[in-house]
Structure formats: structure tokens, C-alpha cells
Amino acid sequence: MRKLIIANWKMNPQNYAEAEQLLAAVLGGVKRIRGVTVVFCPPFVWLTDFSHKMRPVSFGAQDVFWELAGAYTGEVSLSMLQTSRVSHVIVGHSERRRWLGETDEMVRRKVAAVLAAGLTAILCVGEESREQDNVSAVLEQQLVAALGGLAKASLARLVVAYEPVWAIGTGEADSSSNALSAAITIRKVIRDRFDQKVAQSVPVLYGGSVSSENIVSFLSEEGIDGALVGGASLRASEFIELVRRAAAVSRSQGRLKLPVSTPRPPGRTAGWKKGTGVQPVA
Ligand code: PEP
What we know:
It is a single chain. This protein is of the alpha/beta class. Helix content is 40%, strand content 15%. The protein contains ten helices and eight strands. 43% of the residues are buried. The model is unreliable at 258-282 (pLDDT under 50). Residues 8, 10, 93, 163, 168-169, 207-210, 228-232 line the site of phosphoenolpyruvate (PEP).
């Protein structure tokens, strides 16, 4: 699976000139890098301008409202995003859950609306504290709430980002083995609600203090299909290096797919498929 890197700029930078400069610098550095998809999620105010000027580049929104039109002051609709050439929408980011009071029900409505509109929903889930010992239960609760009522076919455009809240913006990334365990749990929950095929096809990303230093460790886990990157996406040279390293992992895993029969490595559970980007659902 081609690795997916989402650049979440959050509420940065503070003016158009800096935003344009950052995007131009990053695009200059990543345009010849093959094997990875990069999606830029700048603040709403610059999306239309950037997406019309800079092509072919993929853009995402950091949020959306679930209603299609009407008297919803301050909100942005899916058709507005579509006319702005947006392909991806981040939904349920922990900063929105924490600061804007976004509930599981709001997240569910947003995911359903994004998928119904034919855009890709990047659903964020993750536990609050590093000390928490019920991570699987938290992930299950958030996923079941967010995916309630969805038809199996609509999950074709779902991406799940595992984002432990304690790791976001702290410089304290999770370990790649914990992130992989979370990815396996996420696929297990999706398998139990839908089926194995859907579970294996949903890309699972890791997010939380990802940098050029640690990106390789996360992406080398074949159940982790990419990363949601906040702080590091605001520094052009750092982000270019991160994408370069992500692409190198992507290409090396692509090469590993060439053998027809792939022996199961020691310690892996049944169902492991080398080079598919998919781990077994335990
Ligand atoms: C994020 O924006 O979701 C994020 C993971 O931020 P950071 O990379 O800064 O931790």
C-alpha cells in the first residue's frame, strides 16, 4: 500500500504570505519524490486559493459540518469543500473534541456525511493518557460510535488515524510497536462490525509527534500505512526529509511484494501477509 502522509497545519501560519511560502517550499522539495501520497490540510481560508493554484496537489480540510447547507453560522459544507477541490477531511481530531466540545455523535455525523459525499474521511481516535491501560476499549468505543449506521461499501474511503492524545504536540511519540498494536485493534473492531476484507483495506495511520527522525520506525511496521503530521509539517526542510524517508520505506516494502510466496516470519500470527501493508486481525 502506498504510504499516506497528512500534513495538518492546524491554525498555522498566521498570514497568507507565510502559508504560501511554506507550501511552495515543501512542494519544491517533494514534487519529485515517488511512492508516497502527501495531503496538505491548511486552514480553510487558504484552501480554495491553494488548490486552484497548485496542481496536481492533494488537499484536505481540517473539519467540515454534516449538514449540506443552511443557517449554520461559521460552518463549512461538503459542497464548498468539493468546489475547493478538497479530497480528504480530518474528522474527530482530539483538539476539536477537547476545545470545541465535539462529541462522538457529532463525529459520527461528520464521518457519514464525508463518505456520502465521496470524499475521504480521516477519522482520528486515541486514548487521552499514556498511563491508560484500556487503550483497546477506548479505540473500540470511539470507532463503534463513529462508524455506527454506515454501510460496508461506504468504508472504501475511510482512513483511521491512531492518535494517542498524550503524544500530540508533546515531542513524546508512542513506540512503533504500540502503534502497531493499536492498528491491529482498529482493524479487529472494523472486522467485527463489517468484515475482514473491509478491515484489511482501511488504511491506518499513526499520529503524535511524528518527525523525520522517527517516521521510518512507524512506517516500517507493515500494518501502519502512513502518518498524520502536525508540528513537523510546518517546517519545510523537516517535512521534506520526512516525506523522503517515508517514500524510501514505501519503495522498499513495494519491492518486498515481488516474491510470490512469502514465508510467515517467526513471532507473527497467522494471516500475516508480507508486503501488503496489512497485519492480521487477532
Ligand atoms: C496532529 O496534528 O494530529 C499531530 C499529531 O500533531 P503533532 O505531529 O504536532 O504531534
